Amino acid sequence: MSRFLEAGHYPYCPHLTHFWHLIYPHEWEKWLKLDLEYLKVCDAYFRIPGSENSKGANIEENEARRLGLKLF
């Protein structure tokens, strides 16, 4: 994430909702919905290597494609 910030970008990392969940517990679908809402204001989607088996990342990537985001 630091590299993105240093390059002048403002990344959103869905993993950070884990810490929010610790004090504001909700079901998985609620957090996924939040992530999908953030995608609507993104310019690109960067998928972390090794996340091929992640149900959430698969859903996010499909939504990013539907929105026409640049995929990395």
- How far do the termini sit from each other? 14 Å
Strand content: 5-15%
User: Can you write the helix and strand succession as a string?
Assistant: HHHEHE
CA-atom Rg in angstroms: 13 Å
Number of helices: 4
Descriptive notes:
By secondary structure, the chain is mainly alpha-helical. The chain has one domain (2-71). 51% of the residues lie in helices and 6% in strands. The chain has four helices and two strands; from the N terminus they run αααβαβ. A two-stranded parallel ribbon has the order 1-2. It is globular.
Summarize the model shown.
With 72 residues, the protein is mainly α.
Itemize the secondary structure elements and their pairings.
Elements: H1 2-6, H2 17-23, H3 28-39, E1 44-45, H4 55-67, E2 70-71
Parallel strand pairs: 1-2
Helix pairs in contact: 3-4
Key features?
mainly alpha, globular, 2 strands, 6% strand, 72 residues
